[in-house]
Specification:
It is globular and about 60 Å long. By secondary structure, the chain is α+β, with helices and mostly antiparallel strands. The protein has helices spanning 26-39, 84-91, 119-126, 131-139, 149-162, and strands at residues 48-54, 60-66, 69-71, 74-80, 94-101, 106-116, 174-188, 196-203, 206-211. It starts with 25 loop residues before the first helix and ends with a strand. It has five helices and nine strands; from the N terminus they run αββββαββαααβββ. The protein is 25% helix and 34% strand.
């Protein structure tokens, strides 16, 4: 069914982004924006981010995952290493993260390189999750084809029975990634589509800040 979207319009008027007002370190600006998003009643999951990867045939794919922590080393998330994104990152660790907070009219795009977290860090996070989520990680061979949902639910029931009185082991195919940034781009919506875009890239021990045309 054809639907004409050409009349969809939104005027962005909630902020501005000027080189003279931003910190020299992009981590500080990201933390400021993240805290604003996290405090907003109009944003349910400030830590929801789009992860884009490229497979061995150079076909890109993006999906939403949840950021679990960040510091000046990088951004951490957890998944099944055998999933499509895990296989992509194994063959090509270059990836892109993006956060879009429409209630603030802000977006951040981070290009970087992903590496697996140490086993101990993955294990600590895995056992901090609700038991149901732990069992779900065992039940689902993520991205593999299954015959129906019943197959998945039956597998979960079997695991609930198996581990009803004990702890759930961390699967060897499940764990975390650290994405180390090579650039940050901060986007602030502005009127007349003349949006503000500031790009941070490493410059020796500092960061270079450049304005991009919208």
């Amino acid at each position: 069914m054809e639907k004409d979207l050409t009349a969809y319009r939104k005027s962005y008027e909630k902020g501005a982004l000027d080189e003279v007002d931003v910190p020299q370190n992009p981590w500080e600006l990201f933390q400021n924006w993240f805290e604003l998003a996290d405090a907003s009643a109009n944003i349910e999951e400030a830590n929801a981010m789009t992860l884009a990867t490229v497979d061995q045939s150079l076909m890109p794919k993006s999906r939403v995952v949840l950021l679990k922590s960040f510091d000046q080393e990088g951004f951490r998330f957890f998944t099944n290493y055998g999933s499509e994104k895990g296989r992509d990152l194994e063959s090509n660790p270059q990836c892109c993260l993006s956060f879009f907070w429409p209630a603030l009219e802000k977006q951040v795009i981070i290009k970087g390189n992903a590496e697996k977290l140490p086993h101990q860090e993955s294990e600590e996070y895995f056992h901090s999750r609700p038991k149901g989520s732990q069992l779900g990680a065992l039940a689902s061979h993520q991205s593999s084809v299954i015959s129906n949902r019943e197959e998945l639910e039956n597998r979960l029931k079997d695991l609930e029975q198996q581990y009803q009185d004990g702890s759930v082991p961390l699967p060897d195919y499940w764990g975390g990634y650290l994405v180390r940034p090579v650039s940050f781009e901060f986007w602030q919506g502005r009127q007349n589509r003349l949006h503000d875009r500031l790009l941070y890239t490493p410059n020796n021990d500092n960061w270079k800040i450049e304005r991009l045309a919208p």
